[in-house]
């Protein structure tokens, strides 16, 4: 628990204090976020020129906080059995977070240099996400620990692996790639109003901090790789403490960033933050063996992406729009809601979906321990 708390505290402070410094640097470089002309909405009035690339602040804060969390592990019993060393789990989760963020940074940088909202092409982003998902998916599925556990599972999971739903190692990598691509773009599309994506991400990633720590408390294997309590219900996952530490750090870093990102935003997370967070959520779901639980926890992001898909399909097939504008948060703004109304109400939706998702997770645990 000490490592999780230290990582979260360090990430929060670094993000809270580092974001204003990043704002100053970006303002001096005139790295303002271009606004598309077709988004001439009330929520975008006065936002032209607000710096983007804010995701750099919480990504860097998370990486430093992870190191601090491992320093905090020194002297504990776990440290004597190898827990201090970075793990493959951390490599995968942080790797996806950082490299998806790097794809977004390239897009943000191209927008600033080109003084337009074009940036990296959609094809370029998808190819980048495909490469990141493939590389880290292979590492997650094909590189076991000394006791044979891998970060990812060949079985599709909900709150735990579904024993009869085995999709093989190749299928597991493909599924992870699809999850990275889906979630990266889902968070990116939801990032259209001050604090909307950031606040919802705090809830989703915070839920994974809880799940990771709960799995660590009820782990099938101790740090030597042997069953800690064979008679008790436990989770057969790899390095759950690492998952809890990273998720707590990211959630805390996003809270620190939200101080400057909430309305009226002084900085946007940009694609660097949005693509990084989306990829991270996919990696957390894989590491905790909760593939199918992720769409429920991240329901707000799912409906943001699906609103765009529905809008495009409807317009191309019927010549009619389902929503006034997509993603769906713009539909409600054009319906008369203020930006703050939309953000707070969408946060409520996100909180409810996270609560329901955690309820399923805990309900499964109770059901099994009572048998």
List the helices and strands and how they pair.
Layout: H1 2-28, H2 55-73, H3 88-114, H4 122-142, E1 155-157, E2 161-166, H5 168-190, H6 196-217, H7 240-261, H8 270-287, H9 294-297, H10 299-318, H11 328-334, H12 339-369
Antiparallel strand pairs: 1-2
Task: Explain what you see.
The protein has 371 residues and is mainly alpha-helical. Residues 223-228 have low confidence and may be disordered. It has a two-stranded antiparallel sheet with strand order 1-2. It is built from twelve helices and two strands.
Q: What share of the residues does DSSP label as strand, in percent?
A: under 5%
Separation of the first and last Cα atoms: 29 Å
Oligomerization status of the protein chains: single chain
Strand order of the largest sheet: 1-2
- The overall pLDDT average reads 89
Order of helices and strands: HHHHEEHHHHHHHH
Radius of gyration: 20 Å
Number of discrete helical segments = 12
Based on Cα principal axes, name the global outline. Answer: globular
Report the major sheet. 2 strands, antiparallel
Low-confidence stretches: 223-228
- The helix fraction, in percent, is 55-70%
Structure class: mainly alpha
